[in-house]
């Protein structure tokens, strides 16, 4: 019989529509403006006395609290009004002082029963949800210095292995100089080193005890090092952002030495800066013996006790670059520790260094590059100058009990939070060169709310115009098309929520375009039905022919558009990808609603019935 679906097809369409409705519902529950309070040391949340002081302070300011939720290491205060967020943060910060980190946040408000079905709202991009924008600059001079220090360490080991005597090494800019006891040792060292390190220009200076070998890194090697530093930092920053769990972040290069990082939805700028901008690395060194020459040792203090000091060898066994994985845990006494696995090369170097030094102490040195602003006078005017500096401190100093391999642990950490962040940094990789924050912008939720308001208005206007056109042009069949259009929008929102797609302003533009294109298929079908009716076919035959004969044209048109959307997604970045995602999903949902949903409605109303006239 014409224009009748089997029962299973009606049930399938109904199931898809119900699923779409359920998984689009979370988008009706907007996130609550909130303030998050956490200990600066990560050792615990706010206690009851301080919580009562916070409550009284906010009540005095007329700030209404919606709810207070305590988590393992932080406190979340939900507010009724987004305009109160900044005021609440400032008051809590003044109340608690520097011992706590107080940050803006957006707390999910999806009902529990929807969360139990793994239903969650769409992720909003930086332009809609707010977040942080960082412009970072890579310190290329520090990258060059780090590379020369590594080369100097390798050269010293090479000279000791060949029993060539040297006095000390010195680094200045892109030049590395080694001083020898006589010219004969210098010339022997030059022949040896030049074979292993071809990226230098070599020059001999002085005689006797002033004999020096001066090595200057070539221009080509410097350029290659700078490219490596920026690309390695890009990779490391992407890994760190992935560890933060930020949806659709942007990490990309800008110019020769800068990197842009955008983190949608992140309001805790302090935590974001601490993880993204951390330039920490580890060095594993042996403690110096009492008879070791001063030129081969360095003295460092412990991070948690500046009065304790230790003399270490200048040569580095391995650095954090050799770490393949790291995780936080606790030792048998409940103290935090980091479990480390090394890559093949790192494991070999560690085993070689420890198996011949059993009973000797090995230190873990924590290195962090920072900056401080200083005000100086230039031409009679005060100018703020950024001064980079490096902090080095010992985490632990332990006796080597047996030869170590690819796996071991680091103890002596102050708190679980410190252990977690150290593990995160080691997992994501160390930076090839220090980075400094040149620009920092926080895009607040209020700006995002304004963008969402305008985006929703554009969708509403587009939807209204399409609905009016279809009603006027196609009457009852226009009602079918409009119902399908509403269901199409519901399915599109559900699909984006399920897939975790990020909605941006270009994505909203894609939704508006989808709404305009969604009725194209119905227009083709309805016009075909009209044409068949004018050709003398019966109502049932005209409906059947309209859907069947328009099918090929509809598929061809939408497939070509889908291919363009896929190409845009594969080669585009940022906003272009957001547009391509919504356009692709919109095409799929439009085909489902136009070909199956409207046909099901037409079949239920007209199928198998003696209809003499169609209102179309």
Automatic annotation (TrEMBL):
One Gene Ontology biological process: protein transport by the Sec complex
Pfam families to which the protein is assigned, alphabetical: Sec_GG, SecD-TM1, SecD_1st, SecD_SecF_C, SecDF_P1_head
Domain of life (superkingdom): Bacteria
Annotated transmembrane regions: 455-472, 479-501, 507-529, 550-571, 583-606
Domain Protein translocase subunit SecDF P1 intervals: 230-287
Ranges for domain SecD export protein N-terminal TM: 2-104
Membrane topology: Multi-pass membrane protein
SecDF P1 head subdomain domain boundaries: 305-433
GO molecular function: protein-transporting ATPase activity
This protein's UniProt keywords: Cell membrane, Membrane, Protein transport, Translocation, Transmembrane, Transmembrane helix, Transport
Subcellular location: Cell membrane
Chain ranges of the Protein export membrane protein SecD/SecF C-terminal domain: 438-603
GO cellular component terms, semicolon-separated: plasma membrane
Main location per the UniProt record: membrane
UniProt xrefs under NCBIfam families: 2A0604s01, secD
Function: Part of the Sec protein translocase complex. Interacts with the SecYEG preprotein conducting channel. SecDF uses the proton motive force (PMF) to complete protein translocation after the ATP-dependent function of SecA.
Record protein name field: Protein translocase subunit SecD
Source organism of this protein record: Halomonas heilongjiangensis
């Amino acid at each position: 019989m014409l224009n009748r679906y089997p029962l299973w097809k009606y049930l399938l369409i109904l199931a898809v529509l119900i699923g779409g409705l359920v998984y689009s519902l979370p988008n009706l529950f907007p996130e609550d403006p909130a303030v998050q309070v956490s200990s600066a040391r990560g050792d615990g949340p706010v206690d009851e006395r301080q919580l009562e002081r916070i409550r009284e302070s906010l009540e005095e300011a007329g700030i209404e609290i919606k709810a207070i939720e305590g988590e393992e290491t932080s406190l979340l205060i939900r507010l009724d009004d987004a305009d109160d967020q900044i005021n609440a943060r400032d008051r809590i910060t003044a109340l608690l002082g520097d011992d706590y980190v107080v940050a803006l946040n957006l707390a999910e408000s999806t009902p529990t029963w929807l969360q139990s079905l793994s239903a969650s709202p769409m992720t909003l991009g930086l332009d809609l949800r707010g977040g942080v924008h960082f412009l970072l600059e890579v310190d290329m001079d520090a990258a060059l210095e780090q590379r020369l220090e590594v080369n100097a360490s390798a050269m010293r080991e090479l000279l000791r292995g060949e029993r060539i005597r040297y006095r000390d090494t010195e680094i200045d800019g892109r030049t590395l100089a080694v001083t020898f006891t006589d010219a004969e040792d210098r010339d022997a060292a030059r022949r040896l080193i030049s074979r292993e390190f071809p990226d230098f220009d070599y020059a001999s200076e002085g005689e006797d005890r002033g004999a020096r070998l001066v090595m200057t890194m070539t221009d080509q090697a410097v350029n290659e090092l700078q490219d490596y530093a920026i690309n390695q930092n890009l990779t490391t920053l992407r890994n760190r952002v992935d560890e933060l769990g930020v949806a659709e972040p942007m990490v990309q290069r800008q110019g020769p030495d800068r990197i842009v990082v955008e983190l949608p939805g992140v309001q805790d700028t302090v935590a974001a800066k601490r993880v993204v901008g951390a330039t920490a690395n580890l060095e594993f060194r042996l403690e110096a013996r009492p008879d070791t020459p001063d030129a081969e040792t360095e003295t460092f203090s412990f991070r948690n006790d500046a009065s304790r000091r230790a003399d270490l060898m200048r040569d580095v066994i391995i650095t954090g670059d050799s770490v393949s994985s790291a995780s936080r845990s606790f030792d048998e006494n409940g103290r935090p520790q980091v479990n480390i696995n090394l890559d093949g090369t790192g494991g070999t170097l560690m085993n070689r260094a420890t198996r011949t030094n059993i009973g000797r102490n090995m230190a873990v040195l924590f290195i962090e590059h920072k900056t401080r602003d200083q005000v100086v006078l230039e031409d009679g005017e005060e100018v703020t100058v950024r001064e980079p500096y490096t902090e080095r401190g010992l985490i632990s100093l332990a006796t080597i009990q047996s030869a170590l391999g690819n796996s071991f642990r680091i103890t002596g950490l102050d708190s679980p939070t410190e252990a977690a962040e150290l593990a995160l940094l080691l997992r994501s990789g160390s930076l090839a060169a220090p980075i400094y924050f040149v620009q920092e912008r926080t895009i607040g939720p209020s700006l995002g709310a304004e963008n969402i308001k305008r985006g929703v208005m554009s969708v509403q206007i587009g939807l209204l115009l399409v609905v009016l056109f279809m009603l006027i042009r196609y009457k009852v069949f226009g009602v079918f098309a409009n119902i399908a259009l509403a269901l199409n929008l519901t399915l599109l929102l559900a699909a984006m929520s399920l897939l975790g797609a990020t909605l941006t302003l270009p994505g909203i533009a894609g939704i508006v375009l989808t709404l305009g294109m969604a009725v194209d298929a119905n227009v083709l079908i309805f016009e075909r039905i009209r044409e068949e009716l004018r050709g003398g076919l019966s109502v049932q035959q005209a409906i059947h022919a309209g859907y069947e004969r328009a099918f090929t044209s509809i598929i061809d048109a939408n497939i070509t558009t889908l291919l363009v959307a896929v190409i845009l997604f594969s080669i585009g970045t940022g906003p272009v990808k957001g547009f391509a995602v919504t356009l692709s999903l919109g095409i799929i949902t439009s085909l489902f609603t136009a070909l199956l949903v409207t046909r099901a409605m037409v079949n239920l109303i007209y199928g198998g019935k003696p209809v003499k006239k169609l209102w179309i």
